[in-house]
Structures are given as structure tokens and as C-alpha cells.
Input
Amino acid sequence: MEKRIRTVWLLSLVSAILVIGVQGYWLYNQYSYVADTFSEELAETILAAGEKEFEIRRTRVKTTYKYIISQQTEYGNTDSVMRQPAQLIRFSLNVPDTLSPVIMKFDWDASVSGEALQAGVDRVITEQINPFRRELADSILAADLPGLQYTITPWRRGDSAHYVSHWAREGRLFRPQIAVYYAYNPIEKEGIVIRAAVPVRPVFRRMAVQWALAFGLILLLTGCFVFQIMTILKQKKISELRAHFVNTMIHELKRPVQTLKTFVSFLGDREMRSSDENATEQVVQDAMFELNNLSAYLNKLKDMLRADSEVTALNRMRFDLPALIGKVIRLTPVPAGKTVRFSVACEMGESGFADADPVHVANVLNNLVENAVKYSGESVDINVKASRTVKGIHLTVSDNGAGIPAAEHEKVFAKFYRGAGLPGKDIPGMGLGLSYVKLIAQAHHGDVTLNSRPGKGTSVTLFIPQ
Output
């Protein structure tokens, strides 16, 4: 059984780890995808801010220009060697407030389309008349992306063979950054690099549903795993309780059976039976009492193990409570090696009769007395007190035993609970005694109270309304 339980735990743990690992890998891929998408949107917004900055400068450039594209062929030292033709652009700008046009000439890549060339020429002319200003770019970024943390550095000419605006992802997974390369003058290879920290919070917000599903599944799986472990542990504990219950029940049944055997032996002896009729009568009464106790013990087991919703059946009648107390004390077995002293006080007024179920009351009293004997030292002092008040009868059993800590005063009335500070681990018991006392008190519409301190003894009072 133990090996099977360990195997189930191991397989469940491995399964849980595998499922959690798969969920983690899926979340990692989802996070990377969402982070890339958000980074791309952020980079496009930054590039759009750069375009806004260029348009503002371009609208302030009021001039006309024309340019001529010419092609020259360069030769080497010999006629047989010819170099790749180069494209040249020659600008003639008519700038206001100047007497003569501004002439510019530069090489350009022959593979560039005419539309791209036109855009590049616009940027060259705008840069000549109204140069790039970082302050303007900062103000646009602050307006379009408030709270964004970024830095702006020059884009060195040697950083790229193709001077085209683009972006790249940098940083770590949970601290991502982007580097946006913005060419405000691509033909002359002038630009800036904007490095910005990608906010993680918006990425997590976009993944709210995925996070909720993943963690919900992980929590459900963990809960099932914990519930399975608790169920297995509970089943194991029930198995142990079952074995302990059988052993304890055998121990508990030995006393009445042994007593009944003694009585039967007495009754089987004709000389003893005929010599003392009073003794014979007393033995018969005690035998009936033990049989009633044995029946009540079995009923107690049935009452404690059945569903809580059932009601304990009582057979209420008027009986002599002091006489019942005396009989329970007289038939209480004293273990070897212990000295037990009883003191009884009955303050019942004019009548010692009580209205209750005598069998259950005797069984309750027997439980309390046996507990006092079991959980005390070698010298045991037990005080049994019965008193009548206006509201009902109080039956109290006090001892000088080990006592019960205050933290366990409520727990000891629960089924199968046994205190952690027992004086000996070999003390028999199932943890049903005080729970049975409480059950009988409630069946009589009464109550049970406990007063105890470690090392000072215990006092239990059963109240039965009359």
C-alpha cells in the first residue's frame, strides 16, 4: 500500500510538472509574440514622429530647385580596364534672399527608384535650408508617447551600408528595448538612433486572457493534485484509525466480558449461589448492569459513527442518580500499579431521582471516570459531584491528572481527536469518549463544559435540564 501511494504521488507530481512546463512554454511564446507586436507598433509610432518633425521643417522651406542627373564613365590606367559607371546629381537651388543659386553635387546609388530619389532630394534640400533639430523631435515624441523613456544618439555613417530607417529589438525578455534608426537625410547618411524601453505593463494587459487561462489551469491542476494528496492521506489515516479502532474496541470489550465471566462463574457455583442469596441477587443485578453497559457501548459506537444528521434515541425515565453513581464507581476497573481514590458528593435536595436516559448517563459517567483514571499518574484522586439547581442537574467529574491545554479545549469534543500532549503514547483510546459525552448532552438538550489546566487536572460537567 505504501509503495502504491508513493507511485501515485510520483506520477501525479511528474504529470503536474509536465503540464505546468507546457503552460510555461506556451506563455513564453505568447509573451514573445505580443512583445514583438507591441515593439513594432511603438517603433512605427517613433518613426511617424520623425516624419512629423521632417514635415514641419519641410513646410518652412520656401524655395524652388532643379536637378540634373548625369552619368560619367571612369577608366583605369589602360584602355582595357573600365570601372563601373557612377551616377551623379547636380543641384541648382534658388534660395530666397540670395543673389546666385546654390550648386550641390553628390553620388547616388543607381538602383534607387525615381520616387525614392525625389524623396531623398527633398530631405537633402530641407536639411540644407532648415537643419534637423533634436528639440523639435523631443517635443513631438513627448506629445505622441507621454512617459516613454528614451535616449537619442547620432547614427554614425559607418553603422549601415544602406542608410534606411528601420528598427531592431534589444534588451532582455522581461526588460525589452528597441533601437529605432531614423534617417532624416538618407542620401548624405545623416540620422539618429532612438533607444526606448518597451513598457511591460501594456504587454501584460494584452495578455490578460492568456494569463488568466494559464494560471487558472495551473491553479486547477495544483488544486486537484493537493486534493488527491489530501484524499490519499485521509484514506491512509482512515485505514490506520480502522486498525486502531479494532484494537481499542477489543480492549474496551474485554472489561465487561471479563466481568460477566466472573459473574457467570459465581452463578455456576451452586454452593456460593445457595449460601448467600443477597450476594447472588447483587451479582445478578451487576451482571444486568454490565450487559446494559455493553449494549450501551455498542450503541455508542453506532451513535458516533452514523451520520450527524441522525438524532440519538433516548429512553428517558426517572432513576436514582446517586445509586447509579455508586454502581459505576464500584464496577470501575483499577489498572495494576495505580491507586485510585473516589470521593462522591450528591446535593440533590429532597429527591435523588433524575429524569434522563440512565443507560447513556451511566455510559457518560463511565467514560469520564475511565478518562480520569487513564490520564492521571499512579495516584489518582477522582471527585464525582451531582447537584440539582432550578434549571436542571449538574454531574461533574474532576481529577488530578495531566490536564488539557487551553488550545485543545474545543478540539477534544471532536470525533477521533486525541490530545497532542498525552502522558503516554500507549494509552488506549479512539478519541470518541468526550465526543460521545457532548452528543448525549445535546440529545438531552443540555450542555457539557470543560475546565482544565496542564498539570492541574481536568473537570468535566454534564448539564441535563429537568
User: Anything to note?
Assistant: Residues 71-86 have pLDDT under 50 and may be disordered. The longest strand covers residues 176-185. The CA atoms of residues 100 and 177 lie 48 Å apart. The two ends are 53 Å apart (CA to CA).
